[in-house]
C-alpha cells in the first residue's frame, strides 16, 4: 500500500485551496499544513485619468457671438432671453403628479451643491465639532426617465433590473448664448434656463418627480443622514512619500539621490515579483469619493445652506458635490418619520418656513448657554 508523505499532502491541500479561493499559491505560507492568513490584492488596474466623451454627448460649448455689444444692446438681449424662458411651456403648468408614500426601500433624488468651507459647532453638552457648509444653488429637475425606458439607455446596469428610474438634476442657471443649440434643447421639457452642471440620480418609481420642480435645502431635514460624493483635490503626479506617506530612504550615511525613493519593489522569496496593487508613484487625487452617513446638523433656508458633519468633504472650496439620502441601513429614515416625498413643497409647511432649522442636540447660539439659580 502506497504511503503519502506530509509534504505531498500539504502541497495537495494548498493547491486545492488556491483553486477554490482564486488566490495564487505563493500567497500562502508553508508553515504547517496551510496558513489561514494571506494578503490578497484586489485593486483594479489603473484607469486612464482623462477620456474622450462618448459620441452621443451633445456639444456643450459655443463660440460666443456679439461680444462687442453696447450696454443698451446687452440689456435688450438679456430682456429678450428672460421673456423667452419666462413664457416657455413647462410641465409644471399641467396637473401635478400624485405624491406617493415613503417605504423602507424608497430612494429619492438628490441635489447638487457647492462646498463653501468649514465652521465649528457645539452640542448642548458643550462638545465642539466641525461642519462643512454646502450651498444648494438653483437646482431644478430636468428630466425623469421611468425604469422601463431607463433600462434601454446607456449607463444602465443589468443588476439594477427595473427597480430604479433616472432623474437628471441641473444646477446654476446660465446665459444660453454660452452653450450650443443641442445643449439648450435638453432643458426645453423642464422649461428652465440651461444649467452649468448636470447630474443623474437613481430613484425608485414611488419617488418620481415632475420635470421643472425646484429643489432647495428643504429637500432634507435637520437630523437626517446623507451621502456626499465629490471629486478629490487633484495633486497631479506625486511620489510615494507624498502619495502614500512612505518614510523614504535615509537622509545621509551613503545615500545619494535616493532620499525620497520607495526602496525595494518586492523581489525574492515567495513574492518573486511585483504584486498587483503595489503602492508606487503615480497620479494622486481627482477621483470620485463618497462619504456615507453624514448628519445634517443645521439648515439655513434663506441661503439654502446645509451644515453637514465633518471637515473632510472631498474637493476644493467652491467645488461641486452631490448630496442624497444615505444608503446605510440603520441611518435611513423610518417610514413613520420620513423626509418630504418626493421633495419639499409649500403645502408641507403650514405655519411657514423658518429662517433656520437645528438638530435637537445642537446648541443654538442665540440661546443662553449658562443659567444661574436665584
Automatic annotation (TrEMBL):
GO terms for biological process: translation. The keyword NADP does not apply. Residues 252-276 are annotated as: Disordered. Coiled coil: none annotated. GO terms for cellular component: mitochondrial large ribosomal subunit. GO terms for molecular function: structural constituent of ribosome. It holds the Pfam family Ribosomal_L3. The keyword Iron-sulfur does not apply. Belongs to the universal ribosomal protein uL3 family. This is Large ribosomal subunit protein uL3m. It comes from Littorina saxatilis.
